[in-house]
Amino acid sequence: MSIIDDVLKLLDKGYLPYQGQIEGHVYEPLGCGPKRKPRWFWKERKYVCLGCVKRCCLVDPVGFELMLPVTYQTKKLAFASLPAVSARELVTKKAWLTIAEVAFVLSIGRSKVWEMIQEGRLEKHPDSPPARVLTESVRKELERTDVYLS
């Protein structure tokens, strides 16, 4: 089976190309390294690498940056760059975040986000009909809790 067949099979099963950062220690037990040009795909808690013939598969691995899937309808394309956004990208590239995005970045529930808004720890946009939270206030909360994604 070729790499193209493997990619198509993973895409068909709902896997996405993994675009987050991976810590170097992840490769030690696998017997390979980032120099081999790993090509990771992920779905929920499973990660599959198509970088070599081993086709490594990991479940809930430590050392992988958390990713938030972006859901929308799209045509199936063999080499489409399917979107996935990391928590780091959310807090560095957006001025305002949705409640769901804040919950993802802070690893908390939506009700906790609303509670933090009420407490004044997060700053909500005064006029935005779907609620938006100022990203700078989320960054401050990350720094305060020592969880910031450097």
Helix-strand string:
HEEEEEEHEHHEH
Terminus-to-terminus distance: 39 Å
Number of helices: 5
Assign a percent range to the helix content.
25-40%
Which range does the strand content fall in?
15-25%
Number of strands: 8
Radius of gyration: 18 Å
Strand order of the largest sheet: 1-2-3-4
For the sheet with most strands, the description reads: 4 strands, antiparallel
Quaternary form? single chain
Structural class: alpha+beta
Mean pLDDT: 81
Overall body shape: elongated
Structural key phrases:
two-stranded antiparallel sheet; 30% helix; elongated; 8 strands; alpha+beta; Arc Repressor Mutant, subunit A; 150 residues
Describe this structure in words.
The longest helix has 10 residues. The protein contains 5 helices and 8 strands, in the order αββββββαβααβα. The chain has about 150 residues and is an alpha+beta fold. About 30% of the residues lie in helices and about 15% in strands. The strands form 3 sheets. It has a 4-stranded antiparallel beta sheet, with no helix packed on it. About 5% of the residues have low confidence. Strand 3 and strand 4 form a beta hairpin. It has 2 domains: about 60 residues, no CATH class; about 60 residues, Orthogonal Bundle (Arc Repressor Mutant, subunit A). Helix 3 packs across helix 4.
